[in-house]
Write a structure and sequence with these properties.
Elements: H1 2-40
Length: 41
């Protein structure tokens, strides 16, 4: 029983981490694109 609860807690943690990374990825991608366009000029 404890193993199942532990599994769900870990799964929820990784799910939240994945959502967090997806939210972070968009601004980071925009910053990288801006840096690349500036470095070309």
């Amino acid at each position: 029983m404890i193993l199942i609860i532990d599994f769900f807690l870990k799964f929820n943690y990784f799910k939240n981490l994945a959502m967090f990374l997806v939210k972070l990825r968009q601004p980071i991608a925009q910053i990288l694109i801006q840096k690349n366009t500036f470095s070309r000029f």
